[in-house]
Backbone:
C-alpha cells in the first residue's frame, strides 16, 4: 500500500480540476480494471463518485469524504468503497441490491450456483467487495446539495437497470459512468442490461447540458462538445456494427452456440470465464430485435439465418 501511495503521489498532476470538481484520473486514463473517479467539494460536504481501485490506494490523501454516490453498481466502480466506512453511500434504487449483499451483486450480473460463487470470490479478492447494508437508494432527478455545488442524478439505464449520469453544477461537469466512449462500445451483456434501454440513454445523454464530460474508462476528460458528440457517435455506432456482423455470419444457418463461439462482443483471444454468458445475452437481444424486424428467421430451436427461407415459413 505504501508503494501504491508513493506512485499516486507522483502522478497527481494527471488529476483534472474544474472548480469544486476534481477528476481523479486512474491508471492508463482509467483502463479497466481501474477507472476515473470524481471528487466534488462543497462548502458543507465532500462527495465521491464511483471509488476506483486507484482511489483505494489514494484514500488517505483525499481527506474526509462525507458521501459516496454510485453511477451504478459494478465491481470496478465500488472497488475503493471499503476505504470509506463512515461515508453515507447512495446508489440508484434499481442497483441498490448490489451494494447490500454479494448475492445481490450476483443478481445484477445474472450468475447463480457455482458460477456465482466463483465470480463472488473473484470480486472479493480483486476488487475488495464488501457489502454495505447501510447504503441508501436514490431516484432519477435526485439532487445532492453540498453547499454551493450540487450533484444531480440522471437515470440512463441499459448498462445496468440503475445506471445514471451525474451532473455537478456548477461547473457543469457530467460524469458519464459506463457510457464510457471506448472503442469496445456499449456493454449490455449482464442480466441487469438492456439493449433498447441503452440506445434510449445514448439519445438522451446527447441533450444534457454540460461543459465537461468525464467517462469512467479510457476517454477520461473531454472539454469540447464537438469531441464529445463525435466520440458518442462512434461509441453508439458499435451497436449497428455488431448487428451487421451478425447478419453477415448468418448468411447460412447458425446455432446460437456457434454465434457465441464466434464472438461479436469480445475478441477471440479473450478467455475470461464470464465471456460466453455475456456474448449469449448480447447476441440474444440482437436476434430478438432482428427477428421482429424480419431480418432473421429461426429455422428450428436455436438455429438462425438472415432473411426469409422456405423451411422457416
Residues:
Amino acid at each position: 500500500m505504501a508503494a501504491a501511495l508513493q506512485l499516486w503521489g507522483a502522478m497527481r498532476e494527471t488529476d483534472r480540476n474544474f472548480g469544486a470538481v476534481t477528476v481523479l484520473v486512474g491508471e492508463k486514463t482509467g483502463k479497466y480494471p481501474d477507472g476515473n473517479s470524481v471528487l466534488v467539494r462543497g462548502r458543507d460536504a465532500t462527495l465521491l463518485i464511483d471509488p476506483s481501485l486507484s482511489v483505494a490506494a489514494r484514500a488517505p490523501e483525499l481527506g474526509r469524504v462525507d458521501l459516496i454516490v454510485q453511477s451504478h453498481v459494478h465491481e470496478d466502480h465500488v472497488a475503493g468503497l471499503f476505504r470509506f466506512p463512515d461515508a453515507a453511500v447512495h446508489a440508484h434504487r434499481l442497483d441498490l441490491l448490489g451494494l447490500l449483499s454479494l448475492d445481490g451483486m450476483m443478481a445484477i450480473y445474472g450468475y447463480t450456483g457455482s458460477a456465482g460463487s466463483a465470480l463472488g470470490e473473484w470480486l472479493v479478492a480483486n476488487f475488495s467487495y464488501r457489502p454495505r447494508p447501510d447504503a441508501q437508494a436514490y431516484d432519477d432527478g435526485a439532487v445532492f446539495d453540498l453547499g454551493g455545488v450540487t450533484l444531480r442524478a440522471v437515470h440512463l439505464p441499459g448498462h445496468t437497470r440503475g445506471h445514471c449520469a451525474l451532473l455537478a453544477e456548477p461547473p457543469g461537469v457530467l460524469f458519464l459512468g459506463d457510457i464510457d466512449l471506448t472503442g469496445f462500445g456499449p456493454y449490455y451483456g449482464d442480466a441487469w442490461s438492456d439493449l433498447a434501454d441503452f440506445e434510449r440513454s445514448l439519445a438522451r445523454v446527447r441533450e444534457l447540458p454540460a461543459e465537461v464530460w468525464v467517462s469512467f474508462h479510457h476517454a477520461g476528460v473531454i472539454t469540447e462538445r464537438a469531441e464529445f458528440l463525435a466520440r458518442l457517435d462512434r461509441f453508439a455506432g458499435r451497436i449497428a456494427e455488431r448487428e451487421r456482423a451478425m447478419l453477415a455470419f448468418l448468411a447460412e444457418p447458425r446455432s446460437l452456440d456457434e454465434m457465441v463461439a464466434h464472438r461479436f462482443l469480445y475478441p477471440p483471444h479473450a478467455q475470461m470465464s464470464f465471456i460466453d454468458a455475456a456474448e449469449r445475452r448480447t447476441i440474444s437481444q440482437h436476434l430478438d430485435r432482428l427477428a421482429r424486424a424480419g431480418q432473421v428467421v429461426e429455422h428450428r430451436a436455436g438455429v438462425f439465418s438472415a432473411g426469409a427461407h422456405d423451411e422457416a415459413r
Summary: The longest helix spans residues 225-249. The CA atoms of residues 55 and 146 lie 21 Å apart.
